[in-house]
Design brief:
With about 230 residues, the protein is of the alpha+beta class. It is built from 6 helices and 14 strands. The strands form 5 sheets. The protein has a 4-stranded antiparallel beta sheet with strand order 5-1-11-14, with helices on one face. Strands 4-9-8-7 form a 4-stranded antiparallel beta sheet, with no helix packed on it.
């Protein structure tokens, strides 16, 4: 199965991030809506499309069709809010032996909960994504990402060694021609667990069901928890 280790967002956090996306970049539509636009254009191909009393030619219609075709690399679409997540370690395809070894490694992993703030955005031209990210990633997040990569390697899984850059993918097929967001996000995310996600292709698009989860717990005494007001 094709997997990755990551953080999930709560329902309220996903809704807040999606609300920001809709307000800051209203021109970018979800993928299913771009498909509907293509079908609408197809329906009007034989008779032309009326626009302010004038009929657009078939040539003009075809140009419009091509500009919003979902296969065009320059036409961005919004990632569904249900798919928002922050990858800690991408695993790729793993077999049963690797999966069992990984479970044992992650069962032994200990890390503390933390809060991060999504307050900046950017575009990566390679994968063509627009993302939201914390401008100051907490040390606990960076440590957790390092530990999950170490666990994966100990389980015999090859993982990339490039610098970890925490982010949440908001849009795909994004390029430098995409208008900048009208304003930056400011959304707090509480991380109290990490998860093993599977990447599953469906007729409606990709989905990321959670297959296993591990709690993040404060590694301090009960007395210190009470002093700090920690209740978990």
């Amino acid at each position: 199965m094709r997997c990755f280790i990551g953080l999930d967002l709560s329902a309220s956090e996903k809704l807040a991030l999606e609300s920001w996306r809709q307000q800051a970049m209203p021109e970018v539509l979800p993928r299913h809506m771009t498909k509907s636009m293509v079908r609408s254009n197809d329906a009007g191909s034989d008779t032309g499309i009326r626009n302010k009393g004038k009929t657009r030619s078939k040539k003009t219609k075809n140009a419009t069709h091509n500009s919003i075709n979902k296969n065009e690399p320059g036409v961005p679409y919004a990632v569904p809010a249900a798919n928002y997540h922050m990858t800690l370690c991408f695993l790729g395809d793993i077999d049963r032996r690797q999966h069992e070894a990984l479970m044992a490694e992650l069962d032994a992993l200990t890390a503390e909960p933390f809060t991060l703030t999504l307050d900046e955005t950017g575009i990566w031209n390679g994968p063509k994504i627009l993302f939201s990210a914390p401008s100051s990633p907490p040390d606990e997040l960076m440590k957790l990402a390092k530990l999950t990569r170490k666990s994966a390697r100990s389980a015999g899984i090859e993982v990339e060694g490039k610098e970890y850059k925490p982010h949440i993918t908001m849009m795909r097929k994004a390029t430098s021609t995409l208008p900048l967001p009208l304003f930056a996000p400011s959304i707090d995310v509480q991380a109290s667990a990490f998860h093993l996600f599977e990447s599953v292709s469906t007729p409606q698009g990709v989905a990321y069901p959670i297959r296993d989860s591990w709690s993040l717990e404060h590694n301090i005494s009960i007395r210190e928890k009470l002093r700090r007001g920690i209740t978990d």
